[in-house]
Amino acid sequence: MPTADREAVAGLPPGIAAAREELTPMLSQYADLCAAHEDALVLFQVGDFYEAFCEAAAAVARVCEVTLTERSDSTGDYPMAGIPIDNAAPYLESLLDAGYRVALGDQVEDADQASGLVDRAVTEVITPGTVVEDDLLEAGTTNYVAAVAGGDESDPPSSVGLAAVDVSTGECLVTAGDRDDVAEELDRIAPAELIAGPDAPEFAPADAERGWTTHAHDSGAFERRAAVERLEPYLPDPDRRFDGDAELRAAGAVLAYAEYTQGDDGPLSYVTRIRRYDPRDRLRLDAAAQRSLELFENRGLGASDTLFDALDETSCALGRRCLERWLRRPLVDADAIRGRHDAVGELVDRTVVRERLADALGAAYDLERLVGRISRGRADARDLRSLHATLAVVPELKATLAEGDEVGSETDDDPRTDRLRDLRDRLDELAEIRELIDDAIAVNPPPEITEGGVIREGFDEDLDALRATEREGREWVADLEAAERERTGIDSLSVGHNQVHGYYIEVTDANLDRVPDDYRRRQTLKNSERYYTPELKEREEEIVGAAERADATEYELFVDVRERVAGETERLQALADAIAEVDALRSLSTVAVERDYVRPTVRTDDDAGVEIEGGRHPVVERAEEAFVPNDADLPPGSIAVITGPNMSGKSTYMRSVALAVVLAQTGSFVPAQAASLPVFDRLFTRVGASDDIAGGQSTFMREMSELTEILHDAGPSSLVLLDEVGRGTATTDGRAIARAAAEFVHDELAATALFATHYHDLTDLAAERDRVFNLHFTATREDGDVTFLHRVAPGASSSSYGVEVAELAGVPAPVVERSRELVADEADGGSGPAADPTGPDEDDAAGDASLREFLAEEADASDPGDSAREAERGGDESAADPPAAEREATDAAASSDGSAAASTDLADDLRALDLARMTPIEALNALHDLQSRATDDE
Ligand code: ADP
Ligand code: MG
């Protein structure tokens, strides 16, 4: 959504502003709320609808696809559009999606009791990063709003502070670092919304690619003193709690914004912990690595498989969110990693425990968000019942964790591992809260909390007395009909009730003469009269009064119970953490068992390298029927140069290695037969621009700037993946850059690296550097089809594998032969990176994505016309061998150079074909085209 549009409807609509002096009191109230919320679209409650006026109405009508109407009053006509409050969620979602922030101007006074205009106030500003409504949030995810603040003199140079809050759960994180660190951390947190301080404007531009919306909120909130004041209710001495002003100011600003969106009612009491952390305490994955490893997002169009999907077997939202946090921040402390592995291992071994935990956890609600709502005073009776159901799971979880797995086995009364024992101890049953809710709240309460039915009988004597009075009154009324019939002798007499007149006794006209004296006329109908008696009236008042007071009492009791529960916010949050971890560990163990993962050995000694036996790609293996496992053996500081045709499995192989590292450090087992891994502290990936098809911004510039990051920041504890680096430019430079980068990674950084490349001469490095070795993938022909074995093998692939694949693919013999000559020429004359007369990459000529499909279709498409031509050409070829010579001969009119050039052109064009990016039909056509050119050349 263009900013201009947003500005047009934020704050006071011009149409309202223009008429401001003469507005009716109601629109004037609307105008005040708009003026006070300059950066939001105000929705104004009028009865059952949220309305917007003038330009804002036009925006609502457009975005929400609702009708634009008009409100006319004595002062004029105002365009108006509204959405139903009952079913606001989908409309609010559309507005958020369209980039709006929405301020809800609710009636905060009972319309019946208001004298004159109903009071209204903005109770909440809904923004992408601060939504708390379950309807608008995805289940089991985190939703952060983040703030960044630039440093000042008191901070380390170039330090930037970053603070993030999940307003739905109260989680609050604070950190600081240099600009790049903070940018990386932002990628990791992936906030839905970012507010940038006046001194950190470079973070402000809305970055569609990164997926958050940005805006500048009240810059005063970023001032030091404002931040200190803001933070005081959250933690004592905020001045001394942060490492530098940048952190402090970011934290103050993000909380100011969070409070603002929650109606500016003061501190958010469920933000109980402001957690400072150092990103260096976790495996650092830069944005490029997160993207290219597809941890959370799949870059392929329409695909949804990510590592997280592959790993998520959690039973509840708490566990899911915990697992996501873990995967975003894998550990770097070997003991902590082993601690998780121990726990996963224990659950892998104890099948019964694992399954019972899964069942029990399935009944847990999203405790973090429930606690948020309870603490904000937004929870209804159903939420409290959900809390009760969640608390009811806890004893079961504790018991399950404590039990031995099978009857008859020597019983372990305790979990065997520290981690699970610790978790069991942290599972706080909060029995008094559970009992309180159970005693107080009805089992199936209505959604409204003001209309009774939420408090259980037996909880409060006064309430029970009121309800008893009400009930007795109703019973008396119910009996009245029979009693009055008997007293008056009128058989058709009836007792009824309506909204306007209340209770009445109805007598038909035929019986009016029998009406007793104490009947008072209430209403005359066509064929009957309605009466009341003084006693009925008295009873009625009693019933109505009791009911009203009972409803009000229930509401008070409910609020009181909710507040008592809110008083345990911290314990409930700690419980939520413990349940979340149990579920996350249990999920990891389920994956380990079901997909045959193995516990990796985590080594910290100096010789520890990557040793994987039969490793698999956790995501690809789920789609590929016959995934071929591969070994990896990378001593510390070594570089594996991997060659082979496109689609042979290079990228998948490299990613399997990196994903094993990520999984292991997350605490997961890994998809392999055996694995021994060191602890890496950073993981980098670089995918060559032309391979980064779905990345959107496939520019060479970006490729190079990401390469720069690696070359600056990688070190001996880094794992580096370079996939076709240098591909985004001409072959000569690309090759030079690739080689220089590899040398640098080896000589200067001593990082462990996997380097897939189409620059075959990089394989020479193995001879020149001790810690460089070659691996390759090959293709074979089986039943007339080119097949990739996907099996890694030691050594370099042959320098002309591209040509070989071309031959396998059925590229005409003259072209293949000529290609061989050219490759040979180049190998003789052109040593090293400099000599490259042709443009694009070697292997593009063949072995491409659509090759197999192409071949399959080729086989089908051998229609008579084609075979005739084949036969004809075959005849020519056999007549004049070698074909190149033949071509020169027939093309004698032109210079022999010219005809060689024609053939080279053809070869060039063939190489330049990027079949991976074509549809099978396009590929087919392109190859047919070349084939006929080859034929025409004769
Ligand atoms: P390259 O990087 O060499 O072009 P990829 O790694 O992208 O090749 O692999 C291409 C396709 O081959 C993958 O999408 C996958 O479907 C399949 N593939 C790769 N490795 C394997 C494997 N080990 N076992 C089975 N299929 C594989
Ligand atoms: Mg690849």
Question: Which short descriptors sum up this protein?
Answer:
single chain; 938 residues; alpha/beta; seven-stranded mixed beta sheet; elongated; binds adenosine-5'-diphosphate; binds magnesium ion
Q: What ions, cofactors and ligands are bound?
A: adenosine-5'-diphosphate, magnesium ion
Estimated share of beta-strand residues: 15-25%
How far apart are the first and last residues' alpha carbons, in Å?
A: 58 Å
Number of helices: 33
| Shape estimate | elongated
Please give the share of residues in helix: 40-55%
Structural category is: alpha/beta
Order of strands in the sheet with the most strands? Answer: 13-23-24-25-21-26-29
Mean pLDDT: 83
Spans with pLDDT under 50 lasting ≥5 residues? 1-8, 405-410, 690-697, 830-898
Query: How many runs of DSSP E, i.e. beta strands?
Result: 29
Radius of gyration: 37 Å
The major β-sheet equals: 7 strands, mixed
Topology (elements, then pairings):
Blueprint: H1 3-9, H2 14-18, H3 25-36, E1 41-46, E2 49-53, H4 54-64, E3 69-73, E4 76-84, H5 89-97, E5 102-107, E6 120-126, E7 145-150, E8 160-166, E9 171-177, H6 179-189, E10 193-196, E11 213-215, H7 224-231, H8 238-241, H9 245-261, E12 274-276, E13 284-285, H10 287-292, H11 307-311, H12 317-328, H13 334-349, H14 351-361, H15 367-376, H16 381-402, H17 418-426, H18 431-440, H19 461-488, E14 494-498, E15 502-508, E16 520-524, E17 528-532, H20 534-566, H21 569-594, E18 601-603, E19 610-615, H22 620-623, E20 630-634, E21 639-643, H23 650-666, E22 674-678, E23 682-687, H24 700-713, E24 718-723, H25 731-749, E25 752-756, H26 765-768, E26 772-776, E27 779-782, E28 785-788, E29 793-794, H27 801-808, H28 813-829, H29 851-860, H30 864-879, H31 883-890, H32 896-912, H33 920-937
Parallel strand pairs: 1-5, 7-10, 9-12, 10-11, 13-23, 18-22, 21-25, 21-26, 23-24, 24-25
Antiparallel strand pairs: 1-2, 2-4, 3-4, 5-6, 7-8, 8-9, 14-15, 15-17, 16-17, 19-20, 19-22, 26-29, 27-28
Helix pairs in contact: 7-9, 12-21, 13-21, 14-16, 14-21, 15-16, 15-21, 16-17, 16-18, 17-21, 18-20, 19-20, 27-28, 28-32, 29-33, 31-32, 32-33
Bound molecules: adenosine-5'-diphosphate (ADP) and magnesium ion (MG).
